[in-house]
């Protein structure tokens, strides 16, 4: 077969999803985690509970097999981790497919906060370590919700790092979730790279910047096509391939009965609605949630075939936390620049409502 022809779809030159999985390595942890996920899904399917796959965090694109350097997509994991909590509150079981070491449901309140988690602690008179009195109530509430999720085995945490791991996991979990039918929900908040280094173009060792140590690109690589990253004089040249359109596969082949919600991240306000609409039309799934990098915590754009376009916005007065005390159900932290209202507390009930309507529709004949 001529070079490249194995990898490309003959109609448009892009790699197909099937080619992708045939030529990029399966993560070593996938089979073990898949067995765990199957048991989790079976338990909740037998109870008739809805299951949401929430993806979260950025995906990396390693430049070397023994990875020293990589490209990353922006995402702290706030959207995913916060949404996962609200899905649990809405009665869903949640598979949380997240970037390793990004924010996690519940622990997010302490792990990456502007305070070190030790600042929440103090010693009592007996010398035992206890929670500072000002954080007692908030921590008791988070702890209660966390324990409930654990008791009900309602939260499964699965980590990924690279975009390759993410794609393998997404496909595997989609297959596992098929028996859920319309009770399955995909909420794709992870920031997924559009580009990657295919296995056959990945160099093995750290790319040497010094001209005195330049490797012969071909001997360092896997052979075949030229390595995706290599030195050209003093410059590092990176030439990435496009990631195949996995969302198309998810909608059409991997999870045709589930509700699918994707996120669209933009920085140019002139493009957001256009791109969200384009994605909805192209993939024909249920909902695209558009957000701008700079305003993602206060406003999102819902674009759906049924509901058209509408903004969900936190009012200006609630976009920063007040300095003192608690604010209803919401937690306040004088150091933090987080909004007083978590927009996910509005997004998730809307998504759950649309999901209910979809389930209802799938039950009614004709
Ligand atoms: C998002 O748009 C997420 O809302 C954010 C969340 C990454 C902005 P944080 O984790 O940020 O709260 O810091 N995700 C982007 C999803 C994405 O990459 N979508 C792909 C695309 O737009 C296709 S599914 O092409």
TrEMBL record:
Coiled coil start-end: none
An individual GO BP term: coenzyme A biosynthetic process
Signal peptide: none
Origin: domain of life: Eukaryota
GO molecular function, one term: catalytic activity
SUPFAM superfamilies documented for this protein: CoaB-like
Protein name: Phosphopantothenate-cysteine ligase
């Amino acid at each position: 077969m001529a070079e490249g022809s194995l990898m490309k779809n003959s109609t448009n030159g892009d790699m197909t999803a099937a080619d992708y999985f045939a030529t990029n390595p399966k993560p070593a942890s996938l089979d073990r985690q898949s067995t765990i996920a199957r048991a989790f899904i079976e338990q909740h399917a037998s109870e008739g509970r809805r299951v949401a796959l929430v993806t979260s965090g950025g995906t990396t694109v390693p430049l070397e097999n023994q990875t020293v350097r990589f490209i990353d997509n922006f995402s702290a994991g706030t959207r995913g981790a916060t949404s996962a909590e609200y899905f649990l509150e809405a009665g869903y079981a949640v598979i949380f497919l997240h970037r390793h070491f990004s924010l996690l449901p519940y622990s997010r309140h302490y792990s990456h906060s502007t305070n070190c988690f030790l600042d929440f602690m103090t010693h009592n008179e007996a010398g035992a370590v206890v929670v500072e009195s000002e954080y007692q109530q908030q921590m008791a509430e988070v702890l209660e919700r966390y324990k409930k999720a654990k008791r009900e085995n309602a939260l499964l945490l699965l980590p990924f790092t690279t975009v390759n791991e993410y794609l393998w996991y997404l496909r595997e979990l989609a297959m596992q979730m098929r028996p859920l039918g319309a009770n399955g929900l995909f909420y794709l908040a992870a920031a997924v790279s559009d580009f990657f280094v295919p296995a056959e173009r990945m160099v093995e060792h750290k790319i040497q910047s010094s001209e005195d140590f330049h490797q012969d690109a071909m001997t360092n690589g896997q052979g075949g096509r030229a390595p995706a990253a290599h030195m050209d004089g003093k410059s590092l040249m990176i030439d990435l391939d496009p990631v195949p359109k996995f969302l198309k596969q998810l909608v059409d082949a991997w999870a045709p009965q589930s509700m699918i919600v994707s996120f669209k991240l933009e920085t140019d306000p002139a493009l957001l609605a256009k791109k969200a609409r384009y994605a909805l039309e192209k993939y024909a799934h249920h909902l695209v949630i558009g957000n701008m990098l700079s305003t993602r915590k206060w406003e999102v754009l819902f674009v759906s075939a049924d509901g058209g376009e509408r903004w969900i916005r936190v009012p200006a007065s609630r976009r920063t936390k007040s300095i003192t005390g608690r604010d209803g159900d919401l937690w306040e932290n004088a150091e933090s620049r987080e909004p007083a209202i978590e927009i996910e507390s509005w997004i998730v009930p809307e998504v759950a409502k649309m999901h209910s309507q979809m389930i209802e529709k799938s039950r009614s004949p004709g």
